[in-house]
Amino acid sequence: MSTAGQVIKCKAAVAWGPAKPLSIEEVEVAPPKKGEVRVKILATGVCHTDAYTLSGKDPEGEWWPTIFGHEGGGIVESIGEDVTSVQPGDHVIPLYIPECRECKFCKSGKTNLCSLVRSTQGRGVMPDETTRFTCKGQKVYHYMGCSTFSQYTVLLEISVAKINPKAPLDKVCLLGCGITTGYGAATKTANIQPGSTVAVFGCGGVGLSVIQGAASRKASRIFAIDTIPKKFEFAKKLGATDCINPNDFDKPIQQVLVEMTDGGFDYTFDCTGNTNVMRAALESCHKGWGESIIIGVAGAGEEISTRPFQLLTGRAWKGSAFGGVKGRSELPNLVEDYLDKKLEVDMFITQQYKLEDINKAFDNIHSGER
Ligand SMILES: NC(=O)C1=CN([C@@H]2O[C@H](COP(=O)(O)OP(=O)(O)OC[C@H]3O[C@@H](n4cnc5c(N)ncnc54)[C@H](OP(=O)(O)O)[C@@H]3O)[C@@H](O)[C@H]2O)C=CC1
Ligand SMILES: N[C@@H](CCC(=O)N[C@@H](CSC=O)C(=O)NCC(=O)O)C(=O)O
Ligand SMILES: [Zn+2]
Ligand SMILES: [Zn+2]
C-alpha cells in the first residue's frame, strides 16, 4: 500500500539536548512539500561532525530536539509537487551541500558551496521555516538538511544525488560525507599533481580518504601523521609511504617534518579539527609554493594563527567543504568509480550497528575505536 501523502510513523534517534545520549523514539514524518522528497533511509554513517554538534561546541547547534546524521543512503518513497529529477524508487545519497544550479555560487564555476538554502538549513528548518518531524507532540529539527538517523527523512530535491541502484547503500552511504570530503580535498581542492609530496594530519575516515586521493594522483611521498599508531595500518594500505607519530619526537612536528623532507611538503591537510595541528600543517609546507588545506571543523570560538611571514614567503592556506564536490553532478561518478573498483570504500566500514545501538557508535568515535 502506498504511503505517499500520508504521515509516516517510524523510528529515529532523537537528540533532546547537548551532550545527552540519543534516544530511540517513534517520530512522525510529514509528506514532502513542493520541491521536497521523502526518503527511506537504509544506512547511515556516523561522522565526527555529528558528535561535534551533539557535544554543544557547534555555534550553529542550538536547535533541540533534533535528528542528526548526514552520511546516508536511501530510496525515494514519495515526491512533492514540482519535483522532476527523482522519482519514487530511485536510490539517493542525501547532500548536506545542495546543488541548485541556479544560485550565484552554483553558477560561479568556482565553488561547490550552493547557498540557496544555507540560512534555513543552518537553523534546522526547511525553506518554509517549518520542520517535517514531530515527536511526542513536539517539533523536531532537521540537521545539515539531511537527518539520516531516522528511518524516513524529508530532503529538498536539490539535496539528493541520484545514484546507480546497483551500488550497495550500506557501503556507498560513506560517500555522503567522509570519503568524498577527503578524496575531493586531494583531487579537486588541492588538485595534487603527480610526483608531489603530501602530509596528512589525522588518519580518521577523512584523512585516510585524502591519502587515497593523493595516491590516485600519484604523489611521490605521502606522510600519514596521527597520535594513534594503529591508524597506520589502514594508511599504508591506501598508499601512505611514511607514518609519523608526533608523540615520538621532542621537537615541534613541523620542524621534524621540514627537516625530513628537505624543506617541507607541496601539500598538507588538516583532518583533525585541532587548531594547533592546523598551524603545524601550514608550517610543514614548502617555502615558495606549499599549500595547506583545512578540512577539520574546529570548536566554537577557536581561531588559527601563524606568523604572517609563513604566508609572505609563499605558503598558502585554503579550506575545503565536502571536498569541493558538487553533489548532484559529481557524486554519482564517485559511486561508479566504487562499482568499477577504482575507489576503496569497503575498508572504511569497521563496525556496523542497529539503529538502537547508535550511542555505541558515538562512544567509539570518542574512544578512537573506529
Ligand atoms: N570540511 C568538511 O567538509 C568535513 C570536515 N570534517 C571534519 O574533519 C575532521 C576529521 O574527521 P574524521 O576523520 O571523521 O575524524 P576522526 O576523529 O576519525 O579522525 C581524526 C584523527 O586525527 C587524530 N588526531 C588528533 N589530534 C592529532 C594530532 N595532534 N596529530 C595528529 N593526529 C591527531 C585523531 O586521534 P584521536 O582520536 O586520538 O583524537 C584521529 O585519529 C573532523 O573535525 C570532522 O568534523 C568531516 C567531514 C567533512
Ligand atoms: N556549523 C559549524 C560548521 C560546520 C562545517 O563546517 N561543516 C562542513 C561540513 S562538516 C561535515 O561533516 C561544511 O560543509 N561547511 C560548509 C557550510 O556551509 O557549513 C560552525 O558553524 O562552526
Ligand atoms: Zn560529515
Ligand atoms: Zn546553488
Beta-strand level of the residues, as a percent range? 15-25%
- How many distinct domains? 2
Largest sheet: 6 strands, parallel
Mean pLDDT: 97
CATH topology of the largest domain: Quinone Oxidoreductase, Chain A, domain 1
- Total beta-strand segments: 15
The backbone outline, from C-alpha atoms, is globular
Radius of gyration from CA coordinates:
21 Å
Family: Belongs to the zinc-containing alcohol dehydrogenase family. Class-III subfamily.
Protein name: S-(hydroxymethyl)glutathione dehydrogenase
Domain Alcohol dehydrogenase-like C-terminal: 205-336
InterPro entries: ADH-like_C, ADH-like_N, ADH_3, ADH_Zn_CS, GroES-like_sf, NAD(P)-bd_dom_sf
Textual characterization of the structure:
- With about 375 residues, the chain is of the alpha/beta class.
- It has 2 domains: about 10-180 and about 325-365, Medium-chain alcohol dehydrogenases, catalytic domain (Quinone Oxidoreductase, Chain A, domain 1, Alpha-Beta Complex); about 190-320, Rossmann fold.
- The chain is built from 12 helices and 15 strands.
- Strands 12-11-10-13-14-15 form a 6-stranded parallel β-sheet, sandwiched between helices. It has a 5-stranded antiparallel β-sheet with strand order 8-3-4-5-9.
- Helix 5 (about 180-190) packs parallel to helix 6 and helix 8 (about 255-260) packs parallel to helix 9.
- The longest helix is centred in the C-terminal third of the chain and has 13 residues, at about 325-340.
- It is globular and about 65 Å long.
- The mean pLDDT is about 95.
- The structure holds NADPH dihydro-nicotinamide-adenine-dinucleotide phosphate (NDP), the ligand N[C@@H](CCC(=O)N[C@@H](CSC=O)C(=O)NCC(=O)O)C(=O)O and zinc ion (2 copies).
- The ligand N[C@@H](CCC(=O)N[C@@H](CSC=O)C(=O)NCC(=O)O)C(=O)O binds near residues 59, 60, 97 and 297.
- Its EC number is 1.1.1.284.
- Pfam families: ADH_N, ADH_zinc_N.
- One of its GO terms (molecular function) is zinc ion binding.
